[in-house]
Structure formats: structure tokens, C-alpha cells
């Protein structure tokens, strides 16, 4: 599963290619989306290595399979008592027998 990153500038989630290298060979940033990466490049700002490492770690953790403890599938729980049959139920049509 690929890691999803969140741009630290605009907050959008983006999905850089695996290996963090775009199709044209340019490196993807774990901190910035493509737009902000190019903005930062224009401004001459390079990503702080520690922040980049953290972002990479967080994204990989999110992409990792969920926790080890997985609740075991519960067996189908059914009532232990059998359904009650209505013993005293009158036979159909047997109501109002006083009117004989
Ligand atoms: Zn952005």
C-alpha cells in the first residue's frame, strides 16, 4: 500500500509515486505537494531533513496494515433457549365458543 502524505503548506493529502520519484525523475517531497514543492524550489527553500523524515515515517505508519490485535471473528451468537411455542394458543377458528 502506498503512503499518503499531507502537504504541510496547504494540508491536502497527496499520493506521490512509490520510491518518491515522479515520472520525470524529479524527487517527490514527503512534506509538500507538487505545487508547494515547486513553490519552495522557486524560493530556494529545501525541506528540513528531520521534518521530511518524520513526515515519511508518519505516512508509512498510516499505510501500514492496521494494528496487530485484531478482534477474532465472533461466532454467530444465538439464543441458547429454543423459541417458545405457544402451547395455550387456541386452534384457529376456535374463538368465541360460548355462542353455541
Ligand atoms: Zn500544498
Overview of the structural elements:
It is a single chain. This protein has helices at residues 34-43, 49-63; strands at residues 5-6, 13-14. By secondary structure, it is mainly α. The termini are far apart. The model has no long low-confidence stretch (mean pLDDT 84). Bound molecules: zinc ion (ZN). Residues 7, 9-10, 12, 32-33, 35-36 line the site of zinc ion.
- Beta percentage is under 5%
Percentage of residues assigned to helices? 25-40%
Main sheet record: 2 strands, antiparallel
> Which oligomeric state applies?
single chain
Secondary-structure map:
Elements: E1 5-6, E2 13-14, H1 34-43, H2 49-63
Antiparallel strand pairs: 1-2
The protein binds zinc ion (ZN).
The site of zinc ion has 8 residues, from helix 1.
Summarize the structure.
With 100 residues, the chain is mainly α.
Key phrases:
100 residues; 4% strand; binds zinc ion; mainly alpha; 2 helices; two-stranded antiparallel sheet
